[in-house]
Automatic annotation (TrEMBL):
Subunit structure: Part of the multisubunit TRAPP (transport protein particle) complex.
InterPro entries with a match to the protein in the record: NO_sig/Golgi_transp_ligand-bd (IPR024096), TRAPP-I_su5 (IPR016696), TRAPP_component (IPR007194)
Domain of life: Eukaryota
Pfam families: TRAPP (PF04051)
Protein's name in the database: Trafficking protein particle complex subunit
Keyword Endoplasmic reticulum: yes
Any one of the GO BP annotations: endoplasmic reticulum to Golgi vesicle-mediated transport
Gene Ontology CC entries for this record: endoplasmic reticulum; TRAPPI protein complex; TRAPPII protein complex; TRAPPIII protein complex
Predominant place of localization: endoplasmic reticulum
PANTHER family linked: 41-2 PROTEIN ANTIGEN-RELATED, TRAFFICKING PROTEIN PARTICLE COMPLEX SUBUNIT 5
Region listing for Disordered, in residue ranges: 1-21
Amino acid sequence: MQQPHPRFSVLSGSSLSSAEHLSPTASSTRFSLPSATSINTALGTPKPGLRPNIYDRNLNKTRTSEVSASAFAFLFSEVVQYTQKRVSGINDLERRLNTLGYRAGTRVLELMVWRAESSSKAPKREIRFLPALMSIHTQVWRAVFGRPADAIEKSVENEDEYMIIDNDPPIERHISVPKDMNQLSCSSFTAGVVEAVLDGLGLPARVTAHHTPTQQFPLRTTILIKLDKSVLEREEILK
């Protein structure tokens, strides 16, 4: 993976030496902080016409808010490159991306549960695996990526394995993987999100991401879910 080009300049030695000759008066004027009174006034009475602070928005009224795709791609690319410099191999890189996704997934689940409880007098919590999997395929994918996943499949060989198929994962569109790292799947981040949601619902599983490209969908990715034995035992009892 190519190393990132520096995007932010720093002060040169000459600039620093020039800055040291600034008078105390000029320095205090240029970098002065507002007093406590002015801070409280700014927070308490926002000027008319200004956009509301993100922390003041109603969480129930921002369900359809969208994030710039280019901003998301830039941020995620920087995360991958930052992480790549601190690992020893592909497996370690995927593990760290999975961990980051897990942290995001816990917050996604918390937000979705809060919205469900605040908008319904009798919120329902899924305790069966298949309804929970359908919710992840549709609601979680839409909350994170703006659309549902493409398919759900069950392994014909292993009873404890299920798959979520994404033919064109947004997380992979702007990632260029070198040939010597062609086994890398940055969708390990997505796998971490899914694993966190399943754990939060009381359905522990090990979730991994795998490239399964086709001629029509070169970025096609399979999120493989391997259920814990306790989930299968509970599903058998609830039948």
